[in-house]
């Protein structure tokens, strides 16, 4: 699973309707261009591809203020909303996703009901536990990882990553169960996107291939 689909669908959904540059600006505001494949080309390609797949509805609007042809605004369809929720739930519960996918999921986790978010995170912890047990039972030499020389550090890395991932997840569960953040159905959510025309202090300033679309 690529993070870009979840990121783009989630960003469009938060706006209701958004053009490509808005989506790019939001993801740069999140720093997603640093920790994921959400580069300008990938963002505009994802928007167009998901419009072809029926996940987004494309609306041609007035010409861009920067000049050029009319911009295209995108809106999440019912099918796109189902895809978004499926991707989000899978990214929250899965223990074996890349960090960019998990990061994207954390950014949208408040779109879930609080109880569901906690349940999915507990599934993630269970997946980590099962994976760690399998690795240490079947792949650790009886004499310990050090008996493999520096190759044993691979095992140490795996186990450390599993333990730290589980610890972070338990901490997030505790914060959520303690009442942190506003989840679906609880009131006005935190606004994590920029308003039209609002300056982005973290923008790269590098022109993208679809900035005028």
Summarize this, please?
This protein is mostly helical. Helix content is 55%, strand content 8%.
Order of helices and strands: HEHHHEEHHHH
Radius of gyration: 20 Å
Oligomer designation: single chain
User: pLDDT under 50 segments (min length 5)?
Assistant: none
- Compute the average pLDDT: 86
Neighbour order of strands in the largest sheet: 1-3-2
Shape: elongated
Portion of residues in beta strands equals 5-15%
Count of DSSP-assigned helices: 8
Distance between the termini: 27 Å
- Counted beta strands: 3
| Biggest sheet statistics | 3 strands, antiparallel
Counting helices, strands and paired strands, the structural category is mainly alpha
- Helix coverage percent: 55-70%
Description:
This protein is mostly helical and 213 residues long. Helices cover 55% and strands 8% of the residues. It has eight helices and three strands; from the N terminus they run H-E-H-H-H-E-E-H-H-H-H. The chain has helices spanning 3-15, 20-29, 32-35, 40-52, 78-93, 99-108, 114-139, 152-177, and strands at residues 18-19, 56-63, 70-76. It has a three-stranded antiparallel β-sheet with strand order 1-3-2. Helix 1 (3-15) packs across helix 4 (40-52), helix 1 (3-15) packs across helix 5 and helix 1 packs parallel to helix 6. The chain starts with a helix and ends in a 36-residue tail after the last helix.
């Amino acid at each position: 699973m690529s993070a870009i689909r979840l990121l783009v669908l989630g960003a469009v959904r938060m706006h209701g309707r958004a053009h490509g540059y808005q989506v790019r600006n939001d993801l740069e505001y999140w720093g997603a261009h640093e920790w994921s494949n959400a580069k300008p080309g990938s963002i505009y390609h994802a928007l167009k591809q998901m419009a072809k797949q029926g996940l987004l509805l494309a609306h041609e609007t007035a010409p861009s203020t920067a000049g050029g042809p009319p911009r295209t605004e995108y809106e999440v369809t019912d099918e796109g909303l189902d895809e978004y929720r499926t991707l989000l739930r899978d990214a929250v519960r899965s223990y074996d996703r890349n960090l960019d996918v998990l990061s994207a999921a954390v950014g949208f986790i408040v779109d879930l009901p609080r109880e569901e978010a906690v349940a999915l995170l507990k599934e993630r912890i269970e997946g980590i536990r099962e994976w760690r047990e399998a690795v240490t039972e079947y792949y650790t030499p009886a004499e310990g990882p050090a008996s493999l020389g520096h190759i044993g550090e691979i095992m140490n890395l795996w186990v450390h990553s599993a333990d730290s991932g589980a610890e972070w997840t338990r901490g997030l569960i505790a914060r959520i169960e303690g009442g942190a953040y506003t989840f679906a159905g609880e009131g006005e959510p935190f606004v994590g996107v920029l308003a039209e025309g609002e300056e982005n202090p973290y923008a790269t300033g590098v022109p993208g291939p679809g900035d005028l679309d």
